[in-house]
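My hope is that you will study the protein record below before we discuss the fold together.
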Amino acid sequence: SVSSIVPESCLLIVVGLLVGGLIKGVGEKPPILKSDIFFLFLLPPIILDAGYFLPLRPFTENLGTILIFAVVGTLWNAFFLGGLMYAVCQLGGPGLNHIGLLANLLFGSIISAVDPVAVLAVFEEIHINELLHILVFGESLLNDAVTVVLYHLFEEFASFEQVTILDIILGFLSFFVVSLGGVLVGVIYGVIAAFTSRFTSHIRVIEPLFVFLYSYMAYLSAELFHLSGIMALIAAGVVMRPYVEANISHKSHTTIKYFLKMWSSVSETLIFIFLGVSTVAGHHYWNWTFVISTLFFCLIARVLGVLVLTWFINKFRIVKLTPKDQFIIAYGGLRGAIAFSLGYLLDYKHFGMRDMFLTAIITVIFFTVFVQGMTIRPLVDLLAVKKKQETKRSINEEIHTQFLDHLLTGIEDICGHYGHHHWKDKLNRFNKKYVKKCLIAGERSKEPQLIAFYHKMEMKQAIELVESGGIGKIPSAVSTVSIQNINPQTLPLERVLPALSKDKEEEIRKILRTNLQKTRQRLRSYNRHTLVADPYEEAWNQMLLRRQKARQLEQKVMNNYLTVPAHRVDSPTMSRARIGSDPLAYEPKEDSENLPIITIDPASPQSPESVDLMSEEPKGCSGLPPSPEEDEEGLVMRVKEPSSPGTDDVFTPGPSDSPSSQRMLRCLSDPGPRPEPEEGEPFIPKGQ
């Protein structure tokens, strides 16, 4: 019941305070969290766990926002806080006058960085949505480079007699060296770890060892050259994970997952307990003015920095950060053990006010962890901030995600705008073409992403069935890859449940591979200066205009006709059908020897329905007075002239497209009211 209200980190600090008080009460000296132990043994497991299981897609999609908060926001906090604290020291009386500008800037750089350990401890308990979590947590990971640079920079400047412009320029350039150098070291060790895992198929037991070994070597190598060890660990974890998981067995994957979680939890517990113990055991110098000003200006700097940077970021973001999001980002800027350890590393020789700095740092840590950490959950519920939705990924979601990626990449190509989708696609193609072949063993290097994801889901479902006791429902051969991961032995000859043959399964994979992965080819970018004219465009435009005019004319005739009410009679087609059903009712005149006779066979292909109505012109419907010949002949069938070659039957206007032909057609289809023939009387009278 207590842990649902108070975060676990707060409870651990309280435990540390009690343990420290007990040790001091019995007359012993409590142990202090030394910086070497913290940076070499306690911090790396937490950062490796965060980097190895980093949600890569939301991290890369929000990388610009994270970098702005981590770099610009941390610089703003450090210099704003350091400058104001220098002003407070100058106005604060005789106890603070001796603290110079460099010492205050160093203190500002220590206290300004958001702590990843504290953020992880609090944000994982409140289950905030993925966007806010990755923004705050990503900022806490990437601001390490800024903190390391500023810390070492001001520490070095404190020993100088005079700081020149060249020193400041070199200090600015050292930021890029520290950050990019740390990333480069991590990438190198990540590639080495992935390449090593390719050859461990016969020694599965030591596969997890390579992951931990190369990650720790990346961290130590970066710290050895004063580069960012946190950036190196994150880069190593992100780079090695997809290739290592494709090579190692499922048991090794489970070992890595649970060992990292356990290791990071133990480190986090020890860090917070030692914070409480060190608070009791350390030497403190309390100055009300300095401590209260530090706490107040920390909060002000964080709020102002988030508001200004978010106003600028929202100009370029598609999904804007709302005021609620900004409040959570500002309120979630927690400080933790990294600031305490950096303060503990200060040398008394150059910084005689180290005890006062440590007291202020511990006060800020306690305030952010206890007050902000305990109240952020009720505030999230009060503001109705979107929570994280625990949903399982499906094949449907994976297909649509890949489809949207390809679609957005194609849109960027057509527009000639090379955004992050374009470069992401380039990187994926380079990865599939070259990197996977070198770092992944066997056929898995050529396996499409969708099928690999399906195998992963299949394996997860099988494990859940085993854990739930439904092992009898599992197929004897789940899939080739899954069987190899569980037990690398030869497949049984008889496959019980899957009825597909080996050739059929390979054919299905080939279809998926060819249709799902090669949807985009290299296309020319859109440029209005290099458009080629379409030779058929003018002809198509004229044909479309003719069609439009014909439709307008037909609609006009239809409107005119609909204004006259008419009695419904049989259409000519129905009339001829009646003639076919009763041919004796129609007797041609004796003197009409040359008159063509209509022979109608309802069962033959030449049925009345196939007669071309546009070639029939009964008398009186053409708009002209009937000639004597036509009067004698009655109904005449005329042969339709074939269209000349090269003309369009649909769009070329013929004689039937004229207004008179349109009126004739209307007259033919519905000739208007006529007296009904009496029963027994032929449909066409004999005297006509």
Observations:
- The mean pLDDT is 76.
- The CA atoms of residues 189 and 214 lie 6 Å apart.
